[in-house]
Amino acid sequence: MDTKIIIHIGLHKTGTTFLQQEVFPKIPNINYQTKVDLTTKVEEGKINLFSDENLDGGSYRLFNTVEQRYNIMENLHKLYPNAKIILCIRDKDSWLKSAYKQYIVAYKSCSFEEYKQRIDKGFLDFDEYIKRLNKLWTNVYVCEFIDLKRSPVKFVNELCDFIGVRNPLVFYKTVYKGITDGQVKFIRLYDKLLPSKIFHLPLAFAIKFIRKDSTITNWLGRKE
Asked: How much of the chain is helix, strand and coil, in % rounded to 5?
């Protein structure tokens, strides 16, 4: 078998946790990793599949700029010029609302309007992102989150066709739900009463623990 390299670069909030837990690890003969850097190992004769949504530049974080996205993209191409690239996108309004909710859990609360004003609008230019990806790589697969929601079996089948494997046995379920509007109000009230980031950290951890966030469960698994 030829050595293949497939890189899933996000976006955040487009079903990445489902793919990372229920699809990618179950592919036969896979070297699957969720972090891409200079230490990432490529195994000969295997399908090397790397999935790291942070490769999109950490788009939902207010302290990042779109230039970080394109710098990462250029560096990734230097490392893996012949890779196949997977990018999942989402309706911009829906993505923005979901990104906002992730931000206020991970960092600190602000209003949705404040978030919209402060985020680098370049992160919402998916067409430009896709255009630049296609300039660097010859095999770029763009899928849409709405298709995963509407027809998950068809979505996974088509994704696996691009990877070049048969659809593994997948348990189709919602792995990680976004927080509710009520929980948004609670977080904002909590941060208003206790505005220090020191107090926000235990709240963020508690929310992630209750919701069985993969970053927490993976950390607990390593501790055990």
From this structure: 55, 10, 35
